[in-house]
Amino acid sequence: MTLKLHLHPFASYCQKVIIAFYENGTPFEACFVDLGEEVSRSAFLALWPIGKMPVLQDEARGETIPETSIIIEYLELHYPGAARLIPTDPDMAWRTRLRDRMFDLYVQGPMQAIVADRIRPDGGSDPASVVAARAQLRTVYGVLEKDLAGKTWAMGEAFTLADCAAAPALFYSDRLEPFGDDHPILAGYFKRLMARPSVARTVEEARPYRHLFPGPELLDD
Q: Which residues pair with 155 in a beta bridge?
């Protein structure tokens, strides 16, 4: 088995897939991508012209797989481990995929909008978009606060695809728009995520790149 994951350790979407690999102990080769370096960028674009990380190469099967959720689905199908990241029950499966989409679209999305505004050239800031992004995060925090009640993980007692998506999304969003005292259930869930070995390892491996974040002091432990 030769699985190559083209990634940057600090990229939140890459972390989502790395967590899935570590959760099942699935061996893979990490291929570092630096989109700011011409040779690395050109090589990656030759592999996947869309230019979005991560991308999985399965040399044994001759497949190139983009998109985080699809990569994890692919691993479940062709390289399953002891941990079932997508439940076998059909109804639980679609609910897990829905929650995965929630973390990607409604936590990652506005979080990245805030980050993007921080790196705009002087005079290019869009305060209205930041206000809207923060409001969306507060809304989804409220939804999660209710939904996570009585649960260890996003979908119940089993760690799933949804938790792989949640960990990096919430890690960065909490730094930019803190959960606050009014979301204790969400905060407790986040604390459990950060203590999970697969997540803790991923966070630690990204630590050397924290200087890349616009406002690295926000990531201090």
A: none
- Domain shared by 94 and 48, yes or no: no
Instruction: State whether 210 and 101 are in the same domain.
Output: yes
pLDDT at 50 (0 to 100): 97
Report the sign of the C-alpha dihedral through residues 199, 202, 203, 204, in that order: positive
- Nearest CA to 140 out of 184, 89, 186 is that of 186
Q: Tell me which residue range forms the domain holding 190.
A: 90-219
Counting the structural domains of the chain, the total is 2
Kindly report the number of other CB atoms within 10 A of residue 52's CB atom: 14
Task: State whether 156 and 208 are in the same domain.
Answer: yes
CB atoms within 10 A of CB 176: 21
* Closest by Cα among 172, 190, 68, 187 to 114: 172
Q: What is the pTM of this model?
A: 0.95
Residue 150 is assigned to a structural domain of this protein? yes
**In what order do the strands lie in the sheet containing 63-66?**
29-32, 3-7, 55-58, 63-66
> Residue 11: which residues within 8 A CB-CB, separation 6 or more?
53, 54
- Report residues of the chain scoring pLDDT below 50: none
